[in-house]
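Entry type: protein chain
Record version: 2
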Amino acid sequence: MKLSKKLISSFSSLIIVSIIIISIISNTMINNRFENYLIKEQEDKFEEIYKVINDLYTNNNFKLDPMELKHYALAEDINIIIQDIDGNIQYNSSTAMGMMGNGMGMGNGHMGRHHSMGGRNISEGEYVEKSYPLSIDNTNVGYLIIGYIDNAYLTESAVLFKNTLWKSFIISGLITVLISFLVSIVLSKKLTIPLIKIRNTANEIQSGNLSAYSTIDTDVKEILELSSSLNYLGTTLAEQENIRKRYASDISHELRTPLTTLKSHIEAIMDGVWEPTKDHLSILMSEITRLSNLVDDLKDSFNAEEYNINLEKSKFNISLELKDILTSFIPLYHQKGYRITSSIEDNIEIFMDKDKFSQVINNLLSNSLNYLRDNGEVFVELKKVNNRLIISIEDNGIGIKKESLPLIFNRFYRVDTSRDKATGGTGLGLPIVKSIVEAHGGSISVESEYGKGTKFILKFPLISKN
């Protein structure tokens, strides 16, 4: 079943069931309250009748006018019977209508269901009687018996009110169901149309169109987030696909260059063009070394997660280690007319893989060396801030363009392709550095302004060995 139909069906069913339940409960409660109210009104009326007749009966020396009694009974639509203290009938509104003389009185205090009272056919209810004591100064002198139909309180007006109430519930329910059905249609379209667009975009991405983009117009936050997530997924997949293609091209190129050199040199030796001299073999060895280093870098790059397993951590003085590394680089920098300066806080100990740390610093210093200009300088700082170790390596080299900054940690990415190839770079150094840093629970970030220089910032947690 389609989502739109399911929403309409579910919403309408819920509304219909709710309306039926509410209508039944409301109608039952209102009718019960209304009937209780009518019964209470009837009882209050009987109390008033009793008080009036008690006063008339006792104040007139136990005598009542039969015709007045008759009219009173007709007006109130009841039967009035007066009995003396011994139970003998003194007055009867029914016999006052001509029934006493022929023996059809109510001396036994009962009346049939089909008795006509005041001209009203009472076959629609049971005839019942209610007795009240007639008294003078708390002395019982007789009884007032009021006969009435048990549902006499349900007058035509009351029945009309109840029927109207029930009809109003039915009409209101039908109108509500119709409105809810229309609302459910509008709501389902509002929800499903954006979802259909998102589904179509997902299908396009699945079929290979990674440039597909979902544009929807809705105020539903969850759907907007879903659309945004899908667009992000498509963009990420497109980027990954481009990276994958570039990886394949770069790997092919990087492997082809040393292999082509090796092949051409070996063919030249085999054809007798070259003699297998030490110089020629040295060239072959350098290409083999380059190829071996490339394979190692690829292995380290694509299996960087292994650093979490193979880290050989130990506690050491990182201040001394960093000074030693800088000392080893000073001659390389001086050969090109560059300088290394530093500000290293003394006696900082840390628990991490010493060799991997050296690999990180060596890579960053080598990068700076390759991209410095005349009067080039690198400044290295080591300090401890709030239980965190911070290392910064800042140079005044050529810098990195703003659009390249988010990409420098991607495999094979080169800021300057021609320059990197000239220096033998593979575009794998920084991804490996990032993997090592993160494997130690640290982070690496870069700040750079093109033409002015670059600054790498490393942060490590200061964790001591237990």
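Comment: The chain has a mean pLDDT of 78.
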